[in-house]
Amino acid sequence: MTSNGKLRIVHYLNQFFGQIGGEEMAGTTPRVQPGPVGPGLALQQALGNSAEVVATIICGDNYVADNLEQASREILALISEQNADALVAGPAFNAGRYGVACGIVGQAAARELGMPVITGMYVENPGAELYRKDIYIIATEDSARGMKDAVGVMVKLLMKLIRQEKVGSPEEEGYLPRGIRFNSFAEENGAKRAVNMLLAKLKGEPFTTELPMPDFDRVTPNPPLENLSKAKIALVTSGGIVPKGNPDRIESSSASKYGKYSLEGLSDLTSETHETAHGGYDPVYANQDPDRVLPLDVVRDLVKEGVIGELHPYHYATVGNGTSVANAAKYGAAIAADLKAAGVDAVILTST
Amino acid sequence: MRLELGRINITDIRFGEKTEIQQGVLVINDAELKVLLADDPNLVGVDLDLAKPGEDVRIIPVKDVIEPRCKVEGPGGVFPGFISKVETVGSGRTHVLSGMAVVTTGDIVGFQEGIIDMSGPGADYTPFSKTLNLVVSITPLEGLPQHKHEHAVRMVGLKAAAYLGSAAVDLTPDQVEIFELGNFAENAVQYPTLPKVAYLYMLQTQGLLHDTYVYGVDAKKILPSLISPTEVMDGAIVSGNCVSACDKNTTYHHQNNPVIRELLLQHGKELCFHGVVISNENVTLADKIRSSDYAAKLVKMIGAEGAIVSEEGFGNPDTDLIMNCQKLEEMGIKTVLITDEYAGRDGASQSLADATTLADAVISVGNANEVIELPACKKVIGNLKTAEIIAGGFSGALHADGSIKVEIQAITGSTNELGFSKLRGEGF
Fold first, then answer.
1. Residue pairs spanning A and B at CB distance below 8 A
2. Cβ contact B361–A282 (<8 Å)
3. A54/A6 Cα distance (integer angstroms)
4. Residue extents of the structural domains in chain B
5. What ipTM does the predicted assembly reach?
6. Do residues B417 and A167 make contact, with C-beta atoms less than 8 angstroms apart?
7. Mind listing the pLDDT tens digit for each residue in A55-66?
8. Candidates 2.40.37.20, 3.40.850.10, 3.40.228.10, 3.40.50.2300; correct CATH number of A7-173?
């Protein structure tokens, strides 16, 4: 708060909007000016009496682009000196480097200072795609002619963030969707909504899907092994095969972890030694003979016969059932790092 | 086919001397019903309880929910292939005990059963907090194999519903709804200008506690097939599954399929309802390809221009959903999909295990990973400890005071993909 009880707002601008100069001044290092500058005047007007733009931090776009981490650290230090209640960055419209700068500064302020942050960008600004998951980015026009509208919408959402009020949908609040899914109760049940959507689609009328399709990663397979008889192989499964009793208590659905288990001294998994923790498939046959999901018996035979060089002495298991893609990717990366460190050449990955 | 559903509004339920309905109050002869239900060599016995809306009661782990009905006129009987002989249902008149349900619980079969809270925050997420419930707790023989256990509890639920339904045979319904649909040729002539719409009804068929039955046939053994909407409304489809509880269709959901209901209500007004194609969700790729090919072909053969596709389950069946969508859209049939989401507890993950850009019209019935705190209830029917192992639960989910913290995945019907409820997933 200021001495007269107003919220303290810090505003971030690039060299151009900060009235230092054009492209020739894009290397300018971060600096602070007291009070509002340039677009800060419109910002102050929109904030009204409840908040005050106490300082403007200005930095050249190239300086940020060329020194991302250092620049964001320096700017963050300047922000934290201001004892601010919130940060406004931009709006950057369709200026790419400026958008990235607003994004990285905003992300750092939100993460490290725990501060409400708002910025604004045109939807195609590269900064939008990079930072929309981390901070609220108001959708703006592609040039500064949209300044007045943008600032009004930014301030409205900023005040909600400062007051910790419930933030509405992207359509209601004007921000770019962050890709975070929340539940609410609709007016009509899902079946009625489906029939209405189908009627609109059949008539060629506009409709909005409730779940935009995700962009899928495509994983390019690695080249095949040159010589299996020299290779070290590991067994990994999302089918939930764990030592009997499920010592890590891996969940039957929506697993919060994976387990790493020794295969030392084992050549065959049985209903005495192992079981499945998985709740998403018929467990009877896997529990009768866990080799059906984690084929240890066959791999031991193949090692004996010299077909496979060596078996990694641990297996890794999680439960794929209801586990979010983000968590699955996290466990996958951690398991891969462990296998890599152990010199494993290839993995037999079984799913269910 | 023409089906009359005569609804008898049940305003209260209680145990008493004789099973009958008196001015809307269902009296249940519990002693007689217990003897009937326990008549199975695989069971030690059953217990009966009542759970009413607003009561401080939690039912866990829930296996199935069934609406009691009886056949009054026309061919066939209730739950053909299980309770009645196999004969085509879906015409004549059926009486419904409206506002109540049979709920089955007892020892856990897999990890897959659900929770029904009759009051508190959890009650908003399940439709069965609003029904007057006869809860049947089933105790199997010790060591009973899981497949037999599942069969036994499924039959107990159906038997109990049929027993209660028979109390309505001679009553005059409070309301009678009439549903009628001609054959494809008649429809096309009658409504030449309305868009022809089909419903592709995906049935969960992944194995133990993941099976669905049509006239008693295990649906993983069928090729996709045509069925009349009134046959579904008249009990031709029975649930043998409840994993995960949030998005599996209970028998009650099948009996009251809201997509079928909505399409019948709009038939002749906004659209021409051309038929229902049932398909399955088997686990092998060959089965998925075969079933989606066959189902899309049937939708095309009946001349539909648009189709609603409802999934049952998640993950593996996302593949079936996307295959169905892709094949229909490539045939020029416009689709709307109904699915739920697994976007992680923070909602930040990608929601589905498969995707196609052709799926441009999707109804989301909610993120099943969202976490909810359920305060302790005064009375628990079943076994509260299962909260730690059912799908949606986790180690530490059950607190010392009896409250639990689970994903809504564990709540029966919370993200039902027939679109039975109003929950929705939104992007923020």
1. 254
2. no
3. 10
4. 2-410
5. 0.97
6. no
7. 999 999 999 999
8. 3.40.50.2300
